[in-house]
Amino acid sequence: MIDDAALNCRYELHLAGALCRLLTNSPGVGETLRAWQATDTYSLSPAFDMRVRVNHGASASVGRPHFRGMRHLVIASFGEANIFVFDLLRRNVSAVISETVVSDSKFWDRILLPIVVGVLGPAVGVVPVHSACLQIDGAGILIAGASGAGKSTLSVALAQQGFHFVSDDWTYLTVARGELVAHGMSSPAKLLPDAVNYFPGLTQFPLCLALNHELAYELPAEKLGAEVKLSCEPRWFFFLERTATEERCQLLPVSADEAQLYVERSVERLPTELELMIQARTAIISQLSRLSCWKLSYGGPPSVAVRGLQHFFTGLRQGVPA
Amino acid sequence: MTAMETNVPDLLQRFATAPHRAQVVIGTIEIAVQSNDPDVIAAIQRACVSGGSERYSTFLAMKVIRDRSAPHDGSNLTVLSVGPLTTLLVGTGSVLTLDCERCEILGFLAPPVSADRFVNELLPLLLDRWQRSESPPLASE
Predict the structure, then answer these.
(1) Where are the alpha helices (H) located in chain A, listed in sequence order?
(2) A256 has a chain B CB within 8 A of its CB
């Protein structure tokens, strides 16, 4: 039985706009998560607790992730000795991990913390959206699209042309003081091997096996020449679509209803026990769909879409109606 | 509009159906069990130790899914008990959670965990925890 009295190391973490109160019996966990510790908790979404007991007798390293869920519970195992239980109704996470995992920063930063926000998000006012996020002229743009549509390649291409990089795959939305805020999780940019055709500098980095077992380049966006921001207030929402090889970029307006339907269909289905969370999530998605929404279709290299978007934003700066 | 088409599969198997049902009594606990595996239902009915005439003091709802796509590796038992939740992890693919406040047991059984092992080894651990949560502590404790 994990007793709070035994979890005598306490930290507050800032995870994509949500405040996480971490209770653990190991100061090593706090040390590994130092970069996530909150400095300003004023603007954060409602808090949740994460209790992590380190089993000092166990040495199993992180194993292959396995997830299951039923009603208000989601359970994730990472090998035999590492288990995390997410309770959406009570807004908490409890875990037992082996000593080996304590200092595995790659596990915490790239795997566990994004999963915590993704799974517990509906309970704490955070909506994970499968989209990239960048910022230009102080305002955020979201780029949604199916896996393989080229979100990451376009994000890196835009970042190399002066757009600030927030995320290239998953973006976490919250509402703070009535305004929509988009957060990244400092995850590395993931580029498939053929991206080397557009970014020749990638050849100096090794390919590695990504979480989904794809072979990819996974690099901090800074190494690709990007300036990284942790969050921004989005104003535009683009739906990315690759077309045939003809080099052409087209932007067509998308209605709020279409945008809302797209996002509603793309988020995880939740059980009826979580009806209040479903309603809160729908409200955030509704706010998202009221952004300026566009379908972005392009063919050819990502530079074609970059030029199209630069033209779009230059026009806005000059007061030309989009 | 292909860019706007999407759907999300039920990767967590949250909505797995459990068409087999039974109402059993073990000790003084009445259990309504649902499963997609008739062997689980049969095994728990065999374990039913009450003739039905005893008074049962508590009720539990249980939903257990036979998870044929779960990983097969390992057989170690890991127990995590925090607040009202007690979770058992067997190997890496079988998980069972007792929620004492909501009076329910939810879980998934990987293929290596037989229905008999579930009923004879894992379920008693959870029922013991459940009964201890129901009992007021003794004055000396």
Answers:
(1) 27-32, 99-102, 105-106, 113-120, 151-159, 256-266, 275-289, 302-317
(2) no
